[in-house]
Structure formats: C-alpha cells, structure tokens
Amino acid sequence: MTEAPLPAEHLSPLATLVEEVLADVGYEMPAATDAINGAVPGHGGLFDPNTSSTELRRAIEELLASGLTRPPVPDPADDTFVLYVDGSSRGNPGPAGAGAVIIDAEETQLARLSRPVGSRTGNNTAEYVALQLGLAELLARYEPHKLEVRIDSMTVIHDVWEGDDPTVPGVETYSGAVATALSNIPDHQYTHLADSDPNPADALATVGADIAALGPG
Fold first, then answer.
1. If exposure means fewest CB atoms within 10 Å of the residue's CB, which of 6, 25, 74, 82 is most exposed?
2. Is the pTM of this model over 0.85?
C-alpha cells in the first residue's frame, strides 16, 4: 500500500484529519468510516449532524494516536484488473472527492477507495486524483500485467491516453504520477463510461466530497 498520504488540495483541519485516517488504512473508505464511527462517543458518527466538530476532532486525534490497522489485501484471481475511477466536485470548484474501485478478472471487488481532494477544487482535478489514487493503490498491493481503466472523464482520457497536453491548470503533480504508474503496467487501456453506465466509484467520490466539505474543526 502507499506509504505516505497522497498530495491534496486545500482542506480544512478537520478534513485533513480524516484524510490522515484514510491514508493510514490504505484509503479504504469502509475501514476508515468504521474506525471513526467507533471512536466517536455516543451514537454519533462521521456524518451524523449531532456530532460536533469538536467531538469529531477529538475522537480522530485519539484514533490516530492509538494507531490504525490496515485491512488485509485480498488475493486476486490473476494479474488482470479493472479499475473504476470517478471524481466529484460540488460547485465546480467546491468540495471535491475522488473514488476508485479495484476489481479482478472474476469481477470480485478487491478495494473500495476514497479520499477528499480539496475544499475548493474543480471536477477535472478530482478526476485526475481518482485515477492517481486507484493506480497508486493497485501498484502498491499487486503486480498488474493487464489493466482496463473505466472512466467517464474525456479530459483525462485525452490527456493521459491520447497524448494531449494537460488542459487543467495545476494538475501536473497528478498527471505526472499517473504517467509514471501506467508505465509500470505492461498492458493498459481505457473504456469511456457514458453517464448512463454504472460506476461503483461514483458513490465513493461523493463521500470524499462530503469529507472535503467538513468544517474547520
């Protein structure tokens, strides 16, 4: 798994703490939310309106100090994978999140990844971050030989697979990391998802945007 948090845009102190929890559990959103909800006193949780920012910050700080255990890495069917990615931004720019789902050749979901991207970030940047997130964790966990990336962003497709120069200001950090990651996968291609196509990464990107929208804390 990735050994350090991936780069992020501007986040509030509270959203940054949640990002640290996510990094510690390999960006596995279910594991992170379970850990945070278990640490919050009473019946509240990460997104419970009855949980105050102060309660949430204190619980997360104690959780981080106690140490977190990363979930075990499931064994894949072979070295062929599918990666669904999606980015979400409310307001474009606004609170933005990234989601990615890693699936093996037998269509078993191996990882459900999510993270906040920034509190005032555009959708195209979130799409880049989603691809970087998925590729980083795929390569950290497995040795992929063949990969199909399923993505709905034509901007990222044009830039990454069709050789266009990045058209979104400030994405060079992400686009460079994506290019490096793909160079380590011998056989990779993309499939463009239409708006009507199911994408399991969509909900994870939305949760990432929810985290990016958390107050100062």
1. 74
2. yes
